[in-house]
């Protein structure tokens, strides 16, 4: 095994935490014997596999370096993960699949148990000459083949592998991610309950099928991307000043994405996980966090990586308040209001609806929200921040890629916080109907908020427009505008602005031959940068 050291500089002493990564050359030679390509063409859409354990390794990758088949050692056993269950039954992958079954079986020539719903896989894998049987999980199997869509026997399967059994598991997570809005795929997806401990995870993003070349084994072992190895090299670069070669620098974006995914596992009872959190926290403190804004955009790949790491490690840090000054150095202090009561009324149809509260949280500010029983555990959410566009694909960043957070309203009292702060919204799910239920926000900053029919011009001029929050909202009949407060501080007649926009929106409705009153108000949100198009300031 190759010994990998992570270096942390803390209290003027060098602390060395050790991780081990196996040389997988022999494994790849066995698995790829007679395999020149992976034919995963067709309509099946797979998920990306994240390889994060020191005893896990990628096997098949797209030209962009995204893994869709991977392997791992776990305890005394072995694992093969395919990121779509149909791959387990593909004739075009039969050579690899038979190699994989034999690698998992470790020459025991035992029973290969195949989940009964994978009948086509039984046909392909029976060519291995091994005893393949359609059966549920049994402890007397040599290898068990199943999908990633159930965790009903999670502990038993993990124990089976740890004691020397083989596991081949196929499935994707993208559909789960798309149909479970607000979920954490790393912690909530059933297959990841089994896989995370084994150093592998299925991500929520998609991979399109194709005809992909098998990796060059020597090159893959020497230069292939691996999360543990790349994080080790980046830590050496930060703490010891070791230069990174061009190939390693080209992996910064992948490393940032993987750091974000890995941190979302929130395995605070794992020594490896807590070590990685500590390493990344120290890197943020030592290397510094780019103070990104429109006048100081982030352009280098290294700064983009730090922007990603800092944003994500803050969310899982055991002491986020200690990390906050390193991430946001200039945090204005605003006066707050206590126990702000907000009445919520909503009648949604086929889509969710944001409900403005007129309240704001400063960067890193925590608050508790008392939730009425009418909306608890009914898919309602609280959102912090109005800019929801993910700009992570941009080469130049004028803000962090993601600056909003959402939290489910699943308890009588919910604590919320967002590194970047933001306006507070309540999100009503589709097909919801409530009238005048009340939430109580324990601590918040008042925001300038004008609502036609409810806010008087006198109150606006005398008091509301001077509310301290840096973001303001103007809510009219059919449109809500969110913009920086500096643009409305001297607005004396919001009623005239409302009249103008009511006329504009009614004209749009007439042009579309629709009722003048929209079923859901349109929103215009100012942003310093958007992911596509050109309309931003």
Q: Can you offer a commentary on this structure?
A:
The protein is of the alpha+beta class and 537 residues long. It has three domains: 19-224, no CATH class; 233-327, no CATH class; 336-525, Peptidase M60, enhancin-like domain 1 (Jelly Rolls, Sandwich), CATH 2.60.120.1250. Strands 14, 15, 16, 17, 18, 19, 20 and 21 form an eight-stranded antiparallel β-sheet that branches. The protein has a seven-stranded mixed β-sheet with strand order 5-6-7-11-10-8-9, sandwiched between helices. A hairpin with a 3-residue loop joins strand 23 and strand 24 (479-484). The N and C termini lie far apart (53 Å).
Indicate the topology.
Elements: E1 2-10, E2 13-21, H1 25-31, E3 37-39, E4 46-51, E5 56-61, E6 67-74, E7 77-82, H2 94-105, E8 111-114, H3 119-125, E9 131-134, E10 143-147, H4 154-162, E11 166-170, H5 174-179, H6 185-188, H7 190-195, E12 200-207, E13 211-213, H8 217-223, H9 227-240, H10 246-249, H11 252-263, H12 271-287, H13 301-316, H14 320-327, E14 337-347, E15 353-361, E16 366-370, E17 381-384, E18 405-408, E19 413-417, E20 422-428, E21 433-446, E22 449-451, H15 457-462, E23 471-475, E24 479-484, H16 494-511, E25 522-525
Parallel strand pairs: 7-11, 8-9, 8-10, 10-11, 22-23, 24-25
Antiparallel strand pairs: 1-2, 3-13, 4-12, 5-6, 6-7, 14-21, 15-20, 15-21, 16-19, 16-21, 17-18, 17-20, 23-24
InterPro entries: M60-like_N, Peptidase_M60_dom, TCAF
Protein name: TRPM8 channel-associated factor-like protein
GO molecular function, one term: transmembrane transporter binding
